[in-house]
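The pair is set out directly below:
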Amino acid sequence: MTATKYPFSIQDDFPQHKVNSDRLLLELGATALAPLVARVDTFGDECGVWFIEALEPEEVALLEDVVAAHSGEPLTHVEFRASTALVGDPKEVTAEDWTDVGGVVTNVSFFVADIDLALGRIVGQVKTNGPGADLRIMKADDTVLLGPVSLPDTQDVWTVFSYTTNPGMPLTEGESLYVVQARRDGATSLAFRYTSFTLLEIVS
């Protein structure tokens, strides 16, 4: 299976010209696409909906129907649990291979009653020059929490990004180390600033 992204224009494809990643994930989770959904990313005008494998034509049509009906309004039953800063001042990434950008040691179960209903969101600003740069969040045991995410070429302009995981991401009971890593992988430059990780929980 190869993870596959389906990109949509927030301005042109969504009826209210806005996206709420938490709502969109739950809307997709209420369809036959639920077992295949990986995450939802937003980057500038693009909303990328990721699946663990390529969709069949009828599944793409279902995805397009969900996007066409999406209101973009915040969910009233997703609650903030915790947030931590990962990068403050601009941090350059000079390595071609994976290198640590920021991280945190935290006890997720202290903040979240049900780990299976947790959502993780990383948001900040990135500046790239040239294609190839990637981002991911790892646990200390090398389990991938989010990503790898391909970062678009921003042509050396600071651009806001937001990536949200699917509910049920592989969090761990007790204290754990979570590390944000990035690599240039062909891009001529890559930098982050004002980047944080937020923990949310779906509540009934």
Observations:
- The chain has a mean pLDDT of 88.
- The helical segments are 10-13, 21-29, 57-69, 108-111.
- The first helix runs from residue 10 to 13.
- Residues 4-69 form a domain with the Alpha-Beta Plaits fold (CATH 3.30.70).
